[in-house]
Each structure stands twice: as structure tokens, then as C-alpha cells.
Structure of Carbamoyltransferase:
Amino acid sequence: MTTGQVDGALAAAPAAAAARRRITVRGVVQGVGFRPFVHTLATELGLTGHVTNTGDGVVAEVEGAPAALARFTERLGTEAPPLAVVEAVDGTDLAVVGGTGFRILPSRADGPSRTLVSPDAATCDACLAELTDPADRRHRHPFLTCTHCGPRFTIVTAVPYDRAHTTMARFPMCARCAREYADPTDRRFHAQPIACHDCGPRLRLLTADPDDRTRPPHPAPGPDPVADARRLLADGAIVAVKGLGGYHLVCDAADDTAVSTLRRRKSRGDKPFALMARQLDDIAHLVRLRDEERALLTGPARPIVLLRRAPHPAPPPGAPALSAAVAPGSPDLGVMLPYTPLHHLLLGLPGDPPGPRLLVMTSGNLAGEPIVTDDDEAVTRLARLADAWLTHDRPIHLPCDDSVVRLSDGEPLFVRRSRGYAPLPVPLPVAVRPALAAGGDLKNVLCLAEGRRAWLSAHIGDMDDLATQLAFEKAASHLETVTGVRPQLLAADRHPGYRSGRWAERHTAGRALVRVQHHHAHIAAAMAEHGLGDRRPVIGVAFDGTGYGDDHAVWGGEILLADYDGYRRFGQLAYVPLPGGDATVRRPYRMALTHLRAAGLDWATDLPPVAACPPEERPLLARQLERNLNCVPTSSMGRLFDAVSSLAGICHHAGYEAQAAVALEAAALGAGDDHGPGYSFALHDAPADRGGADTVADPAPVFAAIVEDLRAGTAPALIAARFHTAVADLVRRCCVLARQRSGLTTVALTGGVFANTLLAEATARLLRDDGFTVLRHRRVPPNDGGLALGQVVVAARTVPVFGGVGVP
């Protein structure tokens, strides 16, 4: 018998065999069409009863033949709607009460929320077909959505997820939408953001006065705001476009003047812009595109995907051009496809007048501030950036930047986990008490956790701006609302100056605050996302730019023997002075000169960083290093990458975070496979009375070899490739030593430096060849965007393990 015949037979079972059960479904089951799915399934199986949303999930009471009830329960998990994530299906037997039919009851807000809100999802194929169909009543409707797509997380104001608890509450449904909403056979049955041309929301286009940007923008007179915006983009304008999680600044990616103007207005330096392409064919000549990347680009999350540039792009006839100012010096292009109906309209439907086919889409904000979501703020804060505003009257309740993902070893690697993924929980291998982790100060993401679930917020940003700190507070409050977690404990980084930590101090309200060492948190995050339980220590390799060390130095080149309870510092990059803090981060040539001095090498003027350092600055820097003035010791691998980038003559000034390291990776990628002889770090045991790591990696031989290569005329690309090989080999050598002394065979690679896929893949390959199990980040970023996950697991486990780190 077929499945339909089996279910038909079950539906026809005699009433005398009836039983009744209350079934609770937990997971992402609200806002994804789950109640309509339950209604359809129960009706198909001849079951009676009802279903409702509660704070605990979707609850159904179903009555009918026991075999039909069993089939119903099985299919709840196996045939759930596309956006649903079923975590558990629990049932309780009830007394048979009789009745006819199956109903959807109003939602109940009883007790704390334990259900999960869906992330925002890209426009589905069925809605896209309606958008492009002139005969459909939602033809060209910029807010077209259904139960399988559209805004969720960014419009939810409370749970259970109902229209009254979203920013769509202000838009009464028209009669036709109301009929669809109430029809169990319709794709929009109980779709909370349901809308059409008649019931809103509404678009409008505002334009600035080019001669007086101090005046407020005025409404454009045209009847079609999207068509007018497309014309403005084609004419070289910069348009602020309101999306799902905030405003984007948009311009024609083929227009050199427009892209350069946007870069100048935003004080962007050389930091790459993201692109939105109408279709994959429009970027096929620009990048190397693998099947896994196609799946990411076309899936419901629609992140920005970092794609390797094609070596020598040759655009076929009619292919869109790309301005060189979009991503200067970057080995990748960040590309996404349209994920809202408005994006599809802006790029043009079939038959529309020609317009830009590739758009720059960058966050609508000033440097360092969170993405703008409020319409009035968009007009004021973006006044000197945009020429026009394509906006609408549906509020964004929570800012949510685009996610950024790249492929590494065939698996997704998050650079930023935000829209399309937040607030999906990360399962935990250990139970934690209700807790909030404040994350770090760069790429801030906070984390709420309870039991065996951790919810990370969307990307918040760098905490050095008041607007970002206010966004942090709103994100914390919103996440508490949608998860029902009421933190009993707070966790934060140990750095005394971190604003995230100071926020936690101000908001303890009698709750304990646990400070977690930066690199320990990185390693714990990698362990947690790979399901390692208590007493499962690892060799943790944590390479990044900055982390507050136990000795008050700036750590960042660390090898720790760690579990959730603690760590021992097994290895470190040798300390060198960090002269002037941020001034040196922005000027990598200073870091190169510092490392040359530490290696006993002269500042000869034939060396690129010496030539890049202004002559009047050199004696001042030398005196600063000699007298140790405003110099903190650092073991940062991120700063070492900066130094080598400058020494090789690749990047002397950094206009954005990690620019020098990105440029070094780009150069290495162009070197080919034959790198010639590599470089090698010196390894030596540290004196027992110094209080540092057991093993110290000295880069002095690396710098001496690079200087020799430079004077032999070796190309910068070869130097960059040899350095990457040297770092990967350093990790392997240190891990072999750690295995010999501790017996540990699992290595966790973490920290922002391992967002460099060339380094990460080479390192993982060497370690696996040497018999290690290698953990790399797949669910959260290796950078500080994943820090809060590690903080919460270290700080909030409900059953502490005694005996320290658990390694020799």
C-alpha cells in the first residue's frame, strides 16, 4: 500500500478504537506554518481535536484511532514545514472526550517562553512566482511573504508568535488577506506577516537636496518608488534602502564614481564592500563558484558568501562589469542574492527597463556604529551618506546585519553569524544554569543559555560607541523575551577596560559575575559546538589580535591545555613590545620594526617597513622601545601577521581591522604551489621561574630569513606563502610536543586568525596527517563573534567538575 492508502485506512478506523493524546512539539515551530501543517495532517488522518501556540511550543490535543495517532506523531517530525526545526515531540495520554473536526485555537501566553523564533528567511519560490506574475494580485508587491518565507526574528516583539506580537500589528488585514489567513488550505494560513497592495505596508522614496544636505529630504513625486530608485542608482546615486534588519547603502557596483563616493562618504578606507547580484550568472565570470557555495547563496538564509576571485576574469558578452573600487586588494568578493521582494524589484524583474545588475550593499551606518533601523534616524544619521532613501512604514524591531560565511574544507565557516541564523540555538553538550554572557568588545555578540541550549544574538558590533551599547541592551532584552531565559548569572571577559564587561558589572543586580579569560573562552566555544562534554580536555590553539592575559600582557598566540574548568598555558609566541597600542595596529610598519629589533636585525633603509616609517618617527619609535615607554608585551599572532605583511612590502597602513593580514593572505594565494624553502620558528623551553608558558615560539629566525629573501629579490607573494607554511608547521610542532607531555590528541583551532582559510586548512591538514583530531568552528565564528558561547559554558555549568583542568 502507498503512504496515502495507509493513512486513508487509518482515517477510516472505527471510532470504538479511539484514544486521545496531548502532544507538545518544541523547537522552531512558531511563525513557520506549523499549526496549519498540524491541522492538515490531523484532518488527513481523520483525527479530531485542536492545536495552539503556547510559550512552550505547539501543543495539540488529538483523538482518533491509536494507529492514526502513532502515524500523526511520527509525521510531525519527518514532514514538518521547510523553516521548522523540530527538537522534541512529547506526548501524554488523556481521557477520550469525543467531538468532531479539528480546530486551530488562539495562542496562549501561559508561563515562560520555551519555544524558538525562526530567523528571517529569503523569499520562497512560490512567492517569487507570484511577484513576477502580472495576473497575480500580489504582482510586484514589495512585502509579499507566506508561512515559508519573510521576516520573523526582526519583527517579533513578544511570544507566542502572533500578528499582535509583531510589527505587523499596525496593519489590519484586508478582506482577501483575512480569508487566506483563515483558510487551512492556503499557503498563507496563519502567516503572521501576510500583506498585499491593499493592506500595506507602503513604500516611499525620499530624495536629498544635493545643494543643501542640511535640509531634510523630500518625498519623490513619482508613482513607483522602486522604479525611481532604480533610475537613481543607474544615474550614479547612493540610495539608503530599508531591508529586513536595517538600512543598506546601495549603489551601482559597476560605477567607479559611485563606489568611490560611497567609500569616501563612509570613511571606508579600502575595506571591501559586499555585492548583491540579481542571479548567479551575473557573478560567474568574477569568482570561482563551488556547489556548496551555490547552496549557501540560494538557501533560505541567503548570507553574504565570500568567494575566491577568478584569477583572470574574462566577462562574457553582456556580463555586468565590476568597479575595481568594490574590494581593492581582497582575494575574495562578498556576494549575496536578493532575499526580499524589494531586492528583486530593485534589481529588476523580466521586462523592466535596464538597470544595475550588481549592487554594492553595505550596512547603513557610520563607521563603528550599529546598522540603522529607525526611519527618522536613517534620515539624520545617513544624511551625509545617501542621496535618497527607499523606505517603508513597517518597523524593524531589532537590528540584524547580514551574515557573512565562507567555505573552508567543504564546510561553512562563519565570519559573522546574524540574519538568517539568529536566533537559532546552539545545542550544548553540558547543562548550564540560566546565564547571560556579554561577549567581547569587537564584533560583539551576546549569549543567553539555559539547560542544553545557547542562543546567540545577531551581530551587534564594536562596543566603543554609545549607539552600539544601546543596541547591546536592546538585543539582550529582546533575546530574553523570545527565549524566556531569565539569567541568574553573568559572564564577561577578564579585560578590565572592556565595555561589555563594565555593562555586566552595572547589571549584576545581586547576581554572580564570572570573568572568563579571552582565549579560554575561544577554546571552550570550539569544544561546545563540537559536543565535547566535561573532562574532555583539548590542545587549544587560540590565535588572534588581542586578549587580556593572566599576566596583564596582550595575549594572542596561545596554545592552552584546556577543558571547561580551566587551562594551562603550554605554548606562546614570544613576547615583543606593542608600542603605542592602537597606533601600531593602524600602522603595521611599526610592528615590523618592533619585531626586527627584537630579532636583533638592523633597521636598514632597504627594508620596506623602514622606508615606510617617516624619518622623523624612527628615532622616536626607537627611543620608545629602548625605554619601554607605553609598551605592553604582546604574544599576538595577529600582530605578527601585520609585521610580516609590512616587512614583505605588502601593507604598511591598515584602514580596517586585519587589513594587513588579509592582504598577506591574498598575496600568498597568488604564489602557486611551489613555495621553495620554508621558514621556521625557534622553539625553546621557558625558564620555570618566569610564570609564562612551557614552550615559547621565537619568530626571530623567520624575520632573518625574510630579510635574506628580500635582499635576494624574492617576490612578496612567495614570502607570504612561506610565512603561512611556517605558522602551520609551528602549530603542528607545538601540538606534537603537547601530545608527548599530556597525552592529548584533540586540537581546537580558534581565534580570528583562523578565519584565514589558507592558514586554517593547511594547519588542519598537517595535524590530521600527524594523527590529531581537529576541531574547527562551524556553528559560530572563530573570531570574537563566538566568544560569548565559550564564556557561558565555562561560567554557568550546573555541575562543576572538580580537579582542575584535568590534564597533566
